[in-house]
Amino acid sequence: TISSLLHSPLSDERANETVTVAGWVRSVRRMKNVSFAHVSDGSTIHPLQAVLTKEQSENLSMGTSVKITGEWKESVGGKGQQSKELLAEKVEVLGKADPLTYPLQKKYQTPEFLRTLLHLRQRIPANTNLLHLRSNIISTLTAFFVEHSFIQCHTPIITSSDCEGAGEVFAIVPEKFFNTPKYLTVSGQLHLEALAAAVPRVWTLSPSFRAEKSGTTRHLSEFYMLEVEAAFIDTLDPLVALIEDMVKTIVRSISTSRVGKETLSTAGEDKAVQLEERWKGLLERPWSRITYTEAISRLGLAAEQKEVQFDIPAVWGAALQAEHERFLAQTVFNGPVFVTDYPKSLKPFYMLPSVSTVPTPGEGETVACFDLLVPAVGELIGGSLREYRYDELLTEMRRHGIAVGDGGEDEGSLRWYLELRKWGSTRHGGFGLGLDRLVCYLAGVENIREATAFPRWVGRCDC
Ligand code: 4AD
Ligand code: MG
């Protein structure tokens, strides 16, 4: 690959060797007697410089796929970023790219415009880099979970239920195929809980689908969720500790590897400084943790003292707004913060009540859950302990109008989920992390539509 040629020590070892590279032309400079072509094969954001005769460069233009054989030489004239260049002997055009119609340009093109070219934009260095970064994160996660004795599982995509109960499910057509309505999963959690009742430490990285109509910079209709479930845990502490360790391990891997360097160099100078600070901050500081109730007081105080002005006031019992989350993570904690023990009324049916539910006057019950909020992105992770007691879960399921199969309507019900509490139930809990949001956070990407190659959001699924 070009990366193995460009990045020393291989670069030096192979000096004066004859090598063959295949890739796409990024640019061609034609001088009087000689031409220079920058060729990229996506293995690194940096192109290789090939030195060609005028004739050899004739059919080359941005986007052309080529195979070039030549000598890997010390670069004469010292032009370009690399100390070596490829002195072409044989140039084979594999696929032409008509310069009059090729939509990618050497000049700056806006993210909005590039989103109309999802099939091509991965050829741009910043987008190429995001593919590498995402892949690096997944490798690190895989190794991390192996090390911590979690096994990777696959949860189904087609499901009978709406795990989060938010009514944002995509229904599958034709309905008749499975006899009862089926949906694309919003979360693999319920199935992962069943697996954690056999193997106590499981994880999955699966597509999740949400028919959310909000076309924000952090919502996709299809995204990848990392989910973890652990049995035999009594508090949120082990989950919170695991998450901090997991994200720090990812950041350490990025910041010490070439993908990290290339992330910084595609971010642009100003942003690179901020991004490096972000990585450092993540590693150096212990992460903060507060309860929802404390967060509401803190937000109330900040508004009262005119430290900040919110569009919607933060009141106990109401969901934290994006502006509240941003203020907490960015201004108050300037880094990740776990907000725990939200009001029960705001959360899905499966959460276990908080350990000490002693509501202060004016407050209601809370559940043993957390959201991890981070600057710029907001909510990155949501997790909880699960209701593991049969009677209590049944009550909650009924209260939420979830079919439990006791009225003859067995099909499509969550009876199986309830039954897990009947035979060998254990205390357990887990969490879900939005992988695309993590990519945004670690790469300093502002819009989640850039964090994944083929984003889908309300009204848009073009490619
Ligand atoms: O907070 P959520 O909805 O939690 C669950 O689904 C749990 N069942 C997970 C679990 O405990 N196993 O989603 C988890 C995370 C969010 O914090 C967010 O990062 C991401 O998934 N997420 C989205 N990412 C992109 N686009 C969307 N529409 C998302 N919705 C959630
Ligand atoms: Mg959530």
Short description:
This is asparagine--tRNA ligase. The chain contains 13 helices and 15 strands.
What key phrases describe this protein's structure?
463 residues; ligase; elongated; five-stranded mixed β-barrel; ATP binding; nucleotide-binding; binds magnesium ion; eight-stranded mixed sheet; alpha+beta; BirA Bifunctional Protein, domain 2; OB fold (Dihydrolipoamide Acetyltransferase, E2P); 30% helix; binds 4-amino-1,4-dioxobutan-2-aminium adenosine-5'-monophosphate
Protein topology:
Elements: H1 2-6, H2 10-13, E1 18-30, E2 34-40, E3 48-53, E4 65-74, E5 84-95, H3 111-114, H4 125-147, E6 151-152, E7 158-159, E8 183-184, H5 189-196, E9 201-209, E10 222-231, H6 237-255, H7 258-267, H8 269-284, E11 288-291, H9 292-304, H10 322-332, E12 337-340, E13 369-374, E14 378-385, H11 390-399, H12 415-419, E15 428-434, H13 435-443
Parallel strand pairs: 3-5, 6-9, 11-12
Antiparallel strand pairs: 1-2, 1-4, 2-3, 4-5, 7-8, 9-10, 10-15, 12-13, 13-14, 14-15
Helix pairs in contact: 4-6, 4-7, 4-13, 6-8, 7-8
Bound molecules: 4-amino-1,4-dioxobutan-2-aminium adenosine-5'-monophosphate and magnesium ion.
Give an overview in words:
The protein is α+β, with helices and mostly antiparallel strands and 463 residues long. The protein folds into 2 domains: 2-102, Nucleic acid-binding proteins (OB fold (Dihydrolipoamide Acetyltransferase, E2P), Beta Barrel); 123-450, BirA Bifunctional Protein, domain 2 (2-Layer Sandwich). Helix content is 30%, strand content 22%. The strands form 3 sheets. Strands 6-9-10-15-14-13-12-11 form an 8-stranded mixed beta sheet. A 5-stranded mixed barrel has the order 1-2-3-5-4. Strand 1 (18-30) and strand 2 (34-40) form a beta hairpin. Helix 4 (125-147) packs across helix 13 (435-443), helix 6 packs across helix 8 and helix 7 (258-267) crosses helix 8 (269-284). The longest helix has 23 residues, at 125-147. It starts with a helix and ends in a 20-residue tail after the last helix. The chain binds 4-amino-1,4-dioxobutan-2-aminium adenosine-5'-monophosphate (4AD) and magnesium ion (MG). Residues 163-164, 187, 189, 210, 212, 219-220, 223, 225, 227, 379-383, 430-434, 436-437 line the site of 4-amino-1,4-dioxobutan-2-aminium adenosine-5'-monophosphate.
